[in-house]
UniProtKB/TrEMBL annotation, chain A:
GO terms for molecular function: 3-isopropylmalate dehydratase activity; 4 iron, 4 sulfur cluster binding; metal ion binding. This is 3-isopropylmalate dehydratase large subunit. It comes from Lentzea fradiae. The keyword Amino-acid biosynthesis applies. Residues 418-444 are annotated as: Disordered.
UniProtKB/TrEMBL annotation, chain B:
GO terms for molecular function: 3-isopropylmalate dehydratase activity. Heterodimer of LeuC and LeuD. It catalyses: (2R,3S)-3-isopropylmalate = (2S)-2-isopropylmalate. Belongs to the LeuD family. LeuD type 1 subfamily. This is 3-isopropylmalate dehydratase small subunit. Pathway: Amino-acid biosynthesis; L-leucine biosynthesis; L-leucine from 3-methyl-2-oxobutanoate: step 2/4. Catalyzes the isomerization between 2-isopropylmalate and 3-isopropylmalate, via the formation of 2-isopropylmaleate. The keyword Acetylation does not apply. Its EC number is 4.2.1.33. It comes from Lentzea fradiae. GO terms for biological process: L-leucine biosynthetic process. One of its GO terms (cellular component) is 3-isopropylmalate dehydratase complex.
Amino acid sequence: MSRTLAEKVWEAHVVRHGSGAEPDLLYIDLHLLHEVTSPQAFDGLRLANRKVRRPDLTIATEDHNVPTVDIDKPIADPVSRTQVETLRRNCAEFGLRLHPMGDVEQGIVHVVGPQLGLTQPGMTVVCGDSHTSTHGAFGALAFGIGTSEVEHVLATQTLPLRPFKTMAINVDGELRPGVTAKDIILAVIAKIGTGGGQGYVLEYRGSAIEKLSMEARMTVCNMSIEAGARAGMIAPDETTFAYIEGRPHAPSGADWDAAVAYWKTLRTDDDAKFDAEVHIDADELTPFVTWGTNPGQGLPLGASVPDPEQISDETERVAAEKALAYMGLQPGTPLRDIRVDTVFLGSCTNGRIEDLRAAADVIKGKHVASGVRMLVVPGSMRVRKQAEDEGLDKVFLDAGAEWRQAGCSMCLGMNPDQLAPGERSASTSNRNFEGRQGKGGRTHLVSPLVAAATAVRGTLSAPADLEN
Amino acid sequence: MEAFTTHTGVGVPLRRSNVDTDQIIPAVYLKRVSRTGFEDGLFAGWRADEHFILNQEPFKAGSVLVAGPDFGTGSSREHAVWALMDYGFRVVVSARFGDIFRGNSGKQGLVAAQCSQSDVELLWKLLESEPGTPVTVDLTDKTVRAKDLVAPFEIDDYTRWRLLEGLDDIALTLRHEPEISDYEGNRQTWLPTTDPLPAV
Ligand code: SF4
């Protein structure tokens, strides 16, 4: 029978088929942990006197709470400090590998896994974090889970699950210069809505997806959750293999050949049927930015703030009114005229080396506009080191930006990197929810290219705007 | 988790409907890193009021909560169930529960007993006129009994079976341990492990 990529990976991990109302039991190949969603899971294990079944398939890193300056000093915020210390204690007690603050492999969990070569095609990857969908870029089935599921995976290395539906997102054509993976995914979310992917695994396919680099594919899959989807996937190909080869945990020698032979089978069969299909024309895409308070409220940068009056759907109109009030925006204002206070370059969406390179390329020899602060936060210490080896830190510092240590940082403001009430940011992260980057903070989601150009001009801009 | 067959304890009449999980335990308590000790967060907003039912004798020692319809709606936080159980509740009786809350209850060993609203009203009257009346919740015959009152309740068969057997999700999965081991024996040998690599 012909099957989709997601179905193939699912089938390969069924430990036991459920009968009737009972779910399937799925094996988990890789379990990633961080300090926020794991404490109670470990406590649950202790209460029930259980062990971690496969410490060798489990890895932890500190990311959500870590400060991005003065990382050699104790964390000032008591809640953050407790969470980080609790993770350290738990990893020591249960014998788990942890990359703590200051370690060369520390970083955002979704940057660390792929970078170590731990994320590979056809695997099942879970983490107590919704952006686990990032790892789907390798053709893995990767999804976020809740704390009790974290405990379940720790104890059993499996999860009881019901199959997902599948949706094809076909992106065909050629991206124009200055248009990136971030613009693709923002356009997808604007098209299907923040609930459009609910219950689905999205498979991104088509010529525009095939041409994307591995890191760009991660950006796309990362935001699948913002469309409500459980996971996003891209079939592995030569780009994938080339990215994995030689990484610390990649197979080698005869194992490599066996792995690649298997990975090549991980494609949706030609006559397989998706439960839903969506088409996006890559040629039509331009840099995309959000104007509202959910990632689906986005428009091409050349557009203006929408007028809620013109939105016929009642729910959407009310949502737009509320969003504009919160964002402090007037209908009809050209998006390019929106002035920002802060530019944040980083997160598991856009905190990888290619993102930093792209932004550095735009900002090189220019200066951050007066009154604007720009935070550059590499996704991991490795990314930071690589950027420094390439001299990117100098480019950012010379332009007047701040060069920080690795972590989630202003993506969610659990550490001191926050927006002040009413402050406005252009951010390469993934959520523009009310208060996400700080109480009262206003977030516009953008690509690294738009972030850099915006930092220079002080208003939402694309690199092309810098040429005039 | 502990098996549940029958429980007798002090019934607490909570004359409120639409008690969402934010009211059961406010968000500030979610910052904790422990899995126990959430009893102080239970109904924290209401308990500040000395007239609140849980601040009254003999209801303080309650273990069977009898609430209005739509109990446990809102955010999916598992802490809501933890807080109720940490406080000492074994059963919540209501005419309707939030779906996720009901699911979480079954997994943690809290009985969410769905009674008719008219029976809830009768229980309220009884518990208010005779505070401290013991209430018995019997999962084998699916009834709530207090004095002469016998109220049938509904609970889905699967959850009931799990509660009777005392099987949490993990215990359920571990019944299939041999199959997990079999699966592990057949995994591709080239799949990665997180074992630290030798330093180069
Ligand atoms: S960078 Fe943001 S979205 Fe990614 S894991 Fe951290 S907090 Fe979550």
